[in-house]
Amino acid sequence: MDTPESSNFAPIVVIGQRALFREALGHYIGEEFGCPVATYPDIESWQRESPDLCTALIFVDTFANAERQRSLENISQLKNSGSSAPIIVFSDAEGVDQIAESLNCGARGHVPTSTPLNIAMKAIRIVLVGGVYVPADTLLGERDIREANPVGDAEHLFTNRQKAVLDALRKGMPNKLIAYELNMSESTVKVHIHNIMRKLEAKNRTEAIIRLLGRSPAEHSQNS
């Protein structure tokens, strides 16, 4: 698997208004992954200083409601502009709706600021190798949400192998790791994921995870 230690990654960029948080996080990321890290108070500062920088990963820390909304808008703009940099949201918000909102805007991970540092670093690594990260506590609590959600009722349609892949998707595992853990080829994993997305009426794996969290993107748009 490619990680910053084994690839020529561009700097990881940490964007956040709280200087202590972004600089401490940036320092620890640099120590953990052995790669360059740049920190900025807002996305405009980053774009003015390094507009052509091909960023390996952008962290957006969101706290107050106004800041969170602005960050979500920035994420959407980055994804709509064709940016391929995976985005992780570090946030005080840790509700199912808020996590689904982050993923729906284009983030590949949502890490509550209450997360222990070692787990946060694992979350970053999962996203860097192509996975999607959501907190385990949310996945456990999501079981109750699915009971009242039609999407959850569709699980009886999945085969045992699809359920195994489904569990791996909930953990944010990339295809290569799913294949290794379940002793199957990556092409077989892709077929299972395709069938899971079809049954969930999802366009991609991130949208499938959003639906597994209990809300569809359409429901999110209607309620936001």
Give me a quick take on this structure.
The chain has 224 residues and is of the alpha/beta class. The protein has 2 domains: 12-134, Response regulator (Rossmann fold); 138-223, Winged helix-like DNA-binding domain superfamily/Winged helix DNA-binding domain (Arc Repressor Mutant, subunit A, Orthogonal Bundle), CATH 1.10.10.10. The chain has helices at 19-33, 43-49, 65-80, 96-105, 117-128, 136-147, 150-153, 160-170, 175-182, 186-200, 205-212, 217-223, and strands at residues 12-15, 37-40, 57-62, 87-91, 109-112.
Which secondary structure elements does this structure contain, and how are they paired or packed?
Blueprint: E1 12-15, H1 19-33, E2 37-40, H2 43-49, E3 57-62, H3 65-80, E4 87-91, H4 96-105, E5 109-112, H5 117-128, H6 136-147, H7 150-153, H8 160-170, H9 175-182, H10 186-200, H11 205-212, H12 217-223
Description:
- With 224 residues, the chain is α/β, with parallel strands linked by helices.
- It has 2 domains: 12-134, Response regulator (Rossmann fold, 3-Layer(aba) Sandwich); 138-223, Arc Repressor Mutant, subunit A (Orthogonal Bundle), CATH 1.10.10.10.
- It is 56% helix and 10% strand.
- The chain has 12 helices and 5 strands.
- The chain has helices spanning 19-33, 43-49, 65-80, 96-105, 117-128, 136-147, 150-153, 160-170, 175-182, 186-200, 205-212, 217-223; strands spanning 12-15, 37-40, 57-62, 87-91, 109-112.
- Strands 2-1-3-4-5 form a 5-stranded parallel beta sheet, sandwiched between helices.
- Helix 4 packs antiparallel against helix 11, helix 9 (175-182) crosses helix 10 and helix 10 crosses helix 11.
- The radius of gyration is 17 Å and the shape is globular.
